[in-house]
UniProtKB/TrEMBL annotation:
Source species of the chain: Mycena indigotica
Biased composition (Low complexity): 9-24
Ranges of residues in domain Fungal-type protein kinase: 230-555
Pfam families: Pkinase_fungal
Name recorded for this polypeptide: Fungal-type protein kinase domain-containing protein
Domain of life per record: Eukaryota
PANTHER family recorded: FUNK1 11 (PTHR38248:SF2), FUNK1 6 (PTHR38248)
Basic and acidic residues composition bias: residue spans: 693-703
Region annotation Disordered: where it falls in the sequence: 1-51, 681-740
Length: 740
């Protein structure tokens, strides 16, 4: 068997129930490599970090688009079933199979002669399935000793319990709700508590998604219709959101005659052929026990994140750590245990994605952010890029990392599916950085402009000196810095690429050059050019990221009131409402960006008082005109009658663009009244380049000299090293070797 995926209909070899019935699981011939999972470079997403949904049906609709092409059915030799059976056998004593068979023979609900769970009716009313199946599930849990686990003192440590939830609304996460809190009602839920799942050791009487172990959806036929796919995908998505240390989720479909095991992970969905659970009772019992196991990684949890005496913790074994003593990256073998905040700082609200989760963490009195995410195979690791950007002002600094902790390949197990679509793996990553908590709406007026200068300078140095382009500038990815020597930084470099990769030149037979291009980043802040999606406008470059910075600034200035609170929807400017609305199409976003750049902004800045507003209005319109040239270049590259080729990226042109962008910001900074209180402005307004040197001016006020005036001093690498040490100084009374 190979990893070639041959497309078939899920109902191509159907029984009377509309599904393909498989034989009992058997061990297939093992391929040389585990099977991968489908990932495509660009697809719709249900992520709503700045938006909301007003109905579950809206979530179902976007889930169809997000998961399109990723519903993979296992191949004829049932590799997923074999893998799950093997996982169960390897984690249990050899006597467990005998114990299960003996229990089935003695269980009053199974007729060994008829080979049927006789309590499960042959019915045309799916609601009649729930009660008998719940009873069977709970009996199986008791067989495996998985209903209750007690500690040495006899107290409940962990629980598992099946509950009929088909008429019980389980609330969705509140932040993405629109006019009302969204709720859904899975048919049967096996709840789980304790361990790495919840701080509470017992299961609450009110069903909640944080306690979900596995889900079962009752149907009369096992066909995965669009309606069924949307329904179960919504359940899985909510589990991922409310259980941030979840790596995969089971939402199984069961009928009076057969079941499908359905697994969701960051590559999409992988499911079994139909299984006759009446004729295969041993396998059925194994699946129920495996999906609720006290070995919680079998349930789909990342067990390095766990609860201990009411405190959420994380075990972290970095591949390398940054040494404060040697100012170098060094190999590491020490496992670190961090205290985590109870709730993560950020959870990406989608299934098929990087699945980013950011944890606020404390280690020996110092604050960090630990980011877990799934890297697309073939993409350079964020850790390698951040190592090269160590000490660069305007770039969030990394302390440690653990690459390739797991993969979809490995987790799904060996085998194939019925898809012939090319597939790419994802790898589970972890990096730890300094904590940069506040986004730009918290800045004071001068501080905001200095923040824009810092991130533009950091972006400039990263691109022109290191050849690294961020490609995902967004509201969440630019943060105020509490550390000396800088006002703001760019974080989240997992979408970054080397410019040499983006400017790869292909030559066809005619000798014509073609630049490789893709569209990436947070959609609300993408540039007009990227949203346009034309093949004539080249790859992602510095102007796209600078334009994204402009949209972040516009959101802060025109989307927030004087208290730093975002306006109600009816008070937001139309263009900002369009950016933040997850239902706005790509075309709608492109048109919105084009309109704001092509014409004078008719709104006044609302973030600060009247003494500041006019200065910010002028800056916004000056920047708008700066980007108008780019929009006109995009227009010309697509014109039928006035066509002009889009300019090829050059370092010289990029350098000039940075100069012009920064000059507009610095001019505004010179004109602004002083901030009302002392804040951590950057003391330096330009980063070192071979032509611009950086002085030792930590104590200098940002207004103490003319903006943009270079200062004589040390070379770039020396200054970067000093800045790194300054930013990474231990807290008072803390040893420098804490991380070593």
């Amino acid at each position: 068997m190979t990893n070639t995926w041959i497309q078939k209909s899920t109902d191509s070899s159907s029984d009377t129930n509309g599904g393909t019935v498989s034989n009992p699981p058997r061990t297939p011939p093992r391929p040389t490599k585990p099977h991968p999972a489908l990932v495509t470079p660009s697809h719709a997403s249900s992520a709503t970090e700045e938006g909301n949904y007003d109905a579950v049906e809206e979530v179902q609709d976007i889930m169809h688009a997000e998961l399109e092409g990723t519903w993979l059915e296992e191949s004829d030799d049932t590799p997923l079933q074999s893998h799950l059976s093997s996982v169960f056998d390897s984690s249990n004593a050899t006597s467990m199979n005998r114990r299960i068979r003996d229990w089935i023979k003695s269980y009053h609900g199974y007729d060994d002669e008829q080979e049927r769970w006789h309590e499960v009716p042959s019915t045309k009313d799916e609601s009649q399935l729930y009660k008998p199946l719940v009873a069977i599930f709970n009996a199986i849990l008791a067989l495996g000793g998985q209903d209750i686990e007690s500690d040495e003192a006899g107290n409940v440590a962990r629980m598992r319990k099946a509950v009929d939830t088909h008429r019980v609304y389980m609330p969705h996460t509140r932040p993405e709700a629109g006019t009302k809190l969204l709720k859904s009602e899975p048919d049967i839920t096996i709840f789980a508590s304790g361990g790495c799942i919840t701080s509470a050791n017992t299961i609450p009487t009110s069903p909640k998604y944080p306690y979900v172990g596995a889900l079962w959806d009752g149907k009369l036929v096992p066909s995965l219709t669009n309606h069924v796919k949307g329904q179960i995908a919504v359940y899985a998505r909510e589990v991922f959101i409310q259980q941030p240390n979840r790596k995969f989720v089971y939402v199984n479909v069961i009928t009076p005659e057969v079941l499908r095991i359905v697994r969701f992970d960051r590559a999409g969905c992988y499911y079994t052929r139909c299984i006759d659970y009446h004729k295969n009772p041993v396998f059925f019992v194994k699946i129920v026990l495996l999906q609720t196991a006290f070995v919680e990684e079998h349930m789909g949890f990342d067990t390095s994140v766990y609860w201990e005496n009411g405190q959420r913790k994380m075990k972290f074994l970095p591949d390398e750590l940054y040494s404060l003593q040697t100012a170098k990256w060094e190999k590491n073998t020490l496992e670190i245990v961090l205290d985590l905040d109870e709730a993560p700082l950020f959870v990406r609200h989608s299934i098929r994605s990087r699945g980013t989760v950011c944890w606020g963490a404390t280690y020996k009195g110092r604050r960090y952010v630990v980011k877990d995410y799934w890297r697309t195979d073939g993409r350079e690791t964020e850790s390698q890029l951040l190592k090269e950007l160590t000490g660069v002002r305007g770039v969030g600094q990394m302390f440690g990392f653990h690459d390739d902790r797991d993969s979809i390949h490995i987790s799904r197990g060996p085998g194939g599916s019925t898809s012939e679509i090319p597939i790419v793996d994802r790898w589970f990553m972890r990096i730890a950085t300094l904590e940069y908590r506040e986004t730009l709406e918290h800045a004071l007026p001068q501080q905001l402009i200095q923040a824009i200068i810092d991130i533009a300078e950091g972006h400039r140095f990263s691109l022109l000196e290191k050849g690294i382009l961020h490609r995902d500038i967004s509201f969440a990815n630019v943060r105020l810095s509490p550390y000396p020597g800088e006002t703001a930084v760019i974080i989240d470099w997992d979408m970054a690429k080397r410019m040499s990769q983006l400017v790869t030149v292909l030559t066809d037979e005619s000798g014509q050059r073609e630049a490789r291009k893709d569209r990436t980043g947070t959609r609300a802040y993408q540039s007009f050019k990227l949203l346009n999606g034309s093949n004539n406008t080249g790859h992602h470059d510095n102007m796209d990221d600078l334009e994204s910075m402009f949209y972040v600034l516009v959101l802060v200035l025109f989307g927030y009131n004087a208290e730093g609170i975002i306006h109600d929807v009816d008070a937001l400017p139309d263009f900002i409402e369009a950016w933040l609305n997850p239902r706005t199409s790509v075309t709608g976003l492109r048109n919105s960006k084009g309109e704001i750049i092509r014409s004078e902004i008719k709104y006044g800045a609302t973030r600060f008082g009247p003494e500041y507003g006019p200065h910010f209005d002028v800056l916004a319109n000056d920047l708008r005109q700066f980007f108008l040239r780019q929009v006109l270049l995009v227009d010309a590259a697509q014109s039928r009658f006035n066509y002009k080729p889009f300019p090829v990226f050059s370092i010289e042109a990029a350098s000039v663009a940075y100069d012009e962008f920064l000059e507009l910001a610095r001019r505004t900074l010179d004109l602004l009244p002083l901030d009302p209180v002392e804040v951590n402005h950057s003391s330096i307004s330009s980063l070192p380049t071979p032509k611009r040197r950086l002085g030792d001016t930590e104590a200098e006020s940002p207004r103490a000299r003319k903006k943009g005036t270079p200062v004589e001093g040390e070379d770039a690498q020396s200054k970067s090293s000093k800045l790194t040490k300054l930013c990474l100084q231990p807290s008072a009374g803390q040893e420098e070797s804490d991380w070593e």
